[in-house]
Amino acid sequence: MTKDIKQYNSKLKGEDKKICNILVKEIYANLKEAESKVWHGHPVWFLDGNPIVGYGKLKASVQLLFWSGQTFKEKGLKPEGSFKAAEVRYTKAEEISTTHLTKWLKKAKKIQWDYQNIVKRKGKLIRLK
User: Which of 62, 71, 123, 59 is nearest to 90 (CA)?
Assistant: First the structure.
């Protein structure tokens, strides 16, 4: 785990900390080749400079976000924002299904939209791979 992600998780308390510790363990186990860092204040994993998955503490929950998640067409993920992102929110560690999480992370490797160049393309997303 990177120093900045470890520091991010260490500031959390109670159930939020449990949730994030499970998420970070599963993400690292399934995205070994990914670069990770705290980006815009939240832990995010990248493949070839493209954001894939991240999580962050919200007011009443922890949000797990997949940048290309709407394309996964998986139950449990809800559309987020105006592009291709999808999310799931957790309030208790027991809500996390590591089976679903592993499936989503595998899809995150295979199904990617080019967020790295979205500004250059003036908001137009192109599918990668």
Answer: 62
Contact 87, 80 (CB under 8 A): yes
Give pLDDT tens digits for 34-45: 999 999 999 999
Range of the domain at 60: 3-128
pLDDT at site 65: 98
Domain count, the chain: 1
Helix axes 98-110, 14-30, angle to 10 degrees: 50
> pTM for this structure?
0.90
CATH of the domain at 106: 3.90.1150.200
**Nearest residue to 15 via CA among 59, 62, 64, 65:** 62
